[in-house]
Amino acid sequence: MFERWKGENEEQNQNKWYPFGSKDEWEMAACLAQNVGHNKIDEFLKLEMIKKCGLTATSKYVFFKKINQLPRRPGMKWTCNTVTVVGNILGEDGKAITEELELWRRNPVECIRELIGNPAFCGAMTLEPERVFGDKEGQSRIIDEMWTADWWWRTQGKLPSGATIAPVILASDKTKLSSFRGDQTAWPVYLTIGNIAKATRRQVSYKATILIGYIPVSKLECFSTADKAQRLAGFRLYHHCMQSLLEPLVEAGRSGVDMLCADGAVRKVFPILAAKVADHPEQCLIVNVQENYCPHGKIDPKNRGEPDGCFLRDIEETLCQLASHRVGEGINPLLDGLRAVY
């Protein structure tokens, strides 16, 4: 993408810093974009001393118009899908009331392609697992990055020779949009990869985290509040939307995708979900348990915090319990703190 951008500029006789006028203006624009808010940028560009510099970006509008001219991958574009929710309340026509919601999303595979191929991360990018020790004898092991942990080594052993893992890290949190109107909320989902060093990944100015979607937030008034139907519908909506957001990762994680990496080499990359950053309520939502239970183990809520043994939850067992509950057989999964979300 960057080579194509460079070639197009040369054909049009543009300077190498296009759409800005010079290297100095390019560096100033990068500094402003990473460290200064929109309104302050406008104030800065209107200073008399700055006007005398002869910049091509003379206002906030022109400044961001130039930034939007910079190359972006086609797959990074937003798409909107309509999610139709069928409620349990009947309308005047005798049919179930429905509600249509918007799911805005980006292709996560293309977002990973953008991150792993960004030359700005070349010095902070690692593409294979390492074992790091704090002593010459190799007795004191250091685990401070994702590529130094055992998970990467175990996963690497399951893939073909020469494969490159892109450990996918997701983060999301339901957020209020206004301090004055508490009913206005959004649920953004962000993505980054463990190949990027944490010192770089965590800095907002490096833009190593990409917004990949917005989970729709609705009161779902097409459901009755009896029997917790409305709450369960909200839980099911979350899982449906997350499945839609992450669906492109399934085949990419199984078969791998050829990607141009930050060092200029093309590799077969396997993007695999490695971690999800979430608060306790959302952790319980992800694993489908009530919030007074532990999202990881089966310990009784009354014994949480006690030095007792805790048996970890088993995915297959959980799925079997939910399947039995769905057809009206077997043990009620609510006994283990599970929610009736299928």
Please summarize what this structure is:
With 342 residues, this protein is α+β, with helices and mostly antiparallel strands.
Description:
The protein has about 350 residues and is an alpha+beta fold. About 30% of the residues lie in helices and about 20% in strands. It has helices spanning about 1-10, 25-35, 40-45, 50, 60-70, 110-115, 150-155, 200, 230-255, 280-285, 315-325, and strands at about 80-90, 95-105, 130-135, 140, 165-170, 175, 185, 190-195, 210-215, 255-260, 265-275. The strands form 3 sheets. Strands 1-2-9-8-5-11-10 form a 7-stranded mixed beta sheet. Strands 3-4 form a two-stranded antiparallel sheet. Strand 1 and strand 2 (about 95-105) form a beta hairpin. The radius of gyration is 25 Å and the shape is globular. It starts with a helix and ends in a 16-residue tail after the last helix.
Rg over CA atoms, rounded to whole Å, is 25 Å
Number of helices: 11
How many strands appear in the DSSP assignment? 11
Strand order of the largest sheet: 1-2-9-8-5-11-10
Shape: globular
The main β sheet shows up as:
7 strands, mixed
Give the structural class.
Answer: alpha+beta
H/E element order:
HHHHHEEHEEHEEEEHEHEEHH
Average pLDDT score = 86
Q: What percentage of amino acids are in beta strands? A: 15-25%
The low-pLDDT segments are none
Distance between the termini: 42 Å
Helix content: 25-40%
